[in-house]
Amino acid sequence: MSVNLQTPIDYLKGVGPNRATLLKKELGINTYQDLLNLFPNRYLDRTQYFKINKLVNSNAEIQIIGKITRFQDAGSGRAKRLVATFTDETGSIELVWFRGVKWIKDSLKLNTPYVIFGKTNVYSGKHSMPHPDIELLTEHENGLRSALQAIYPSTEKLSNRGITNRVLTKIMQQLFLETKGKFVETLPEKLRSEVKLISKSEALFNIHFPTTSELLSKAQFRLKFEELFYIQLQLILKNLIHKSKIKGFPFNQIGPNFNTFFKEHLPFELTNAQKRVIKEIRQDLGSNAQMNRLLQGDVGSGKTIVALMTMLMAIDNGFQACLMAPTAILSVQHYNGLSELCKPLNISIKLLTGSSKTSERKEIHSALESGELDILIGTHALLEDKVKFKNLGLAIIDEQHRFGVEQRSKLWRKNTVPPHILVMTATPIPRTLAMSVYGDLDISLIDELPAGRQPIKTVHRFDTNRLKVFNFIRQEIKKGRQVYVVYPLIQESENMDYKDLMDGYESIARDFPLPEFQISIVHGKMKPADKEFEMQRFIKGETQIMVATTVIEVGVNVPNASVMIIESAERFGLSQLHQLRGRVGRGSEQSYCILMTSHKLSEGSKTRLNTMVKTNDGFEIAEVDLKLRGPGDIMGTQQSGILNLRIADVVKDGDILQHARHYAKQILTKDPRLTLEENKEILETYRQMSKYKNIWNYIS
Ligand code: ADP
Ligand code: MG
């Protein structure tokens, strides 16, 4: 029978129906192809054999040549086990099995040379090796062996049922025998020689049976590159197709509102980064394609003004615009701020949140439909079906990380032609990850803070120094500044957190008594109107201290606030700490962030706190965060598929990713339809990928 890689794994010699079922269930291996793409987790140096009298208790994996001299059943109940004495010319150790005992006893022979492989430990004074990988010496010598032994991903069930790493290796050998190790090349010659990539067949052989460590790294590089290249190719193609297919509303003119605002009413000089980003957006809006742009900018970098100027472009071209924010507080703040800025212009702006009154809603609905209303600002309430625009041309989403992909697409459907979309985020996503996760969006970056900002001074203080911290607060308030004190609120322990917050509030109220000091408090259990009231008191400067939970995390803008105290700082994640710190340092005064913790700190907490103290750079912080937590916790990664990488690693292989993206772009720029002869491998692979949904499932 001729083999093709879509052949079910059952047909491979040495597999059979039982093993096939297990391989399918435990590792998702259905076909030859799947097996071929089961990449090893790691490799072991198997050129070394240990002598038993040289064993040390090191917990390293080792191999020994010797013979089993006797079997013995030991223990009872849960401690029941099979013990074998394994001897070489220098001494003996015990091999121990708790499971699969019958199978072991039946299949292993006494006094026959074996190679055992595994970790040893010391048990009642004797070295022993539990559940060793074991192989006849003759087979070991004949096998398709390499200096570096591949160790495959496995599960407990697999090893209990006798599918050990050795068995997997043998099955893999069989696959290479049956296919003669020849696989279809999936990257064009030209690209391979430019990037210095070895061939597909050579890479696959060496990933499973590396002959030298140098060839192993070449194999890894080739396969990682291939994986990332095709992901980037897909993303870039999606973006290109989107641009050519999805027509947007061309905003051809720069009209009176934009011009008047720009020339006469800008409250400050724009930073160069803001100017550049506005230009990028203008270019998008003037083209015939629909804009899908991500605006990244650290907290306080001034994204709001960019949002406003983009909305003015929409209005000047006869369209409506909306701005959606994740919380009511933030929506209200945007509404107040933007209304103020737009005062000199003849523009109508309204606010819609969950707590808008029915009469207000009705008014808004009809003004939207008649086209009287130019700008609508609000929360998720904007997404409701009842909210219909006469002619929505632009939708802006603030703090994108709080929203999912569905919300973006709901906004899409608010007009017959999808409006232009601008998503803004202060969560700095490391570049490599942004490229993978948001590869279908164009990215603009505000990488510069407004002039005159002083870097925030961050310190870590233990709870025992609270009095000193309070004295410091007092001094700052005397200078006319305002202070935030933030408590963690984690859903699972909400009631306890709530108690911490109230206790904290009381002790602050005691140390900062009325009438000299006024304190605001804001937390999630309050009614929206009460929250808003307290927030406004703080914004207007009527209160000096704002005690709050993380409801103030995103976007709140009170430039006069110069001190941010974060209680139980060890309980916050890095990006949250950075967001919170971004609430201060918004004016020209020196600002401070004080991270309060107890003395009990985990290593992870220490790293987070030190990082915060050391740097204000959101991107640097994001990199540390990515290393600490892995990409899984970073917003957006879940849906992107980037976590299903088989061999590459978004964190460690950032350089390869950049390379891969560069070449994917270059090739598509020259040959967007992949019709050139030199790209035929790419076209074919891409076709197969689209069919199989996963790049490793295409036919090799
Ligand atoms: P974010 O990017 O975090 O949303 P904001 O848009 O809220 O930042 O801006 C933060 C503060 O900086 C606001 O008080 C805003 O008025 C001010 N600001 C923005 N751009 C500039 C600028 N170019 N020069 C001076 N201040 C600016
Ligand atoms: Mg903002």
Structure, explained:
With 700 residues, this protein is of the alpha/beta class. Among the domains are: 98 residues, OB fold (Dihydrolipoamide Acetyltransferase, E2P); 191 residues, Rossmann fold, CATH 3.40.50; 159 residues, P-loop containing nucleotide triphosphate hydrolases (Rossmann fold, 3-Layer(aba) Sandwich), CATH 3.40.50. It is built from 25 helices and 22 strands. The strands form four sheets. A seven-stranded mixed β-sheet has the order 6-7-4-3-2-5-8. Strands 12-13-11-14-15-10-16 form a seven-stranded parallel β-sheet, sandwiched between helices. Helix 19 links the parallel strand 19 and strand 20. Helix 8 packs across helix 9. It is globular and about 95 Å long. It starts with 15 loop residues before the first helix and ends in an 8-residue tail after the last helix. The model has no long low-confidence stretch (mean pLDDT 88).
Specify the CATH class of the domain at 256-446. Answer: Alpha Beta
pLDDT averaged residue by residue: 88
At CATH level 2, the architecture of the domain at 256-446 is: 3-Layer(aba) Sandwich
Given the structure, what is the number of helices? 25
The CATH superfamily of the domain at 256-446 appears as P-loop containing nucleotide triphosphate hydrolases
For the secondary structure, the number of strands is 22
CATH topology of the domain at 256-446: Rossmann fold
Low-confidence stretches: none
* Biggest sheet overview: 7 strands, mixed
Q: State the end-to-end CA separation.
A: 18 Å
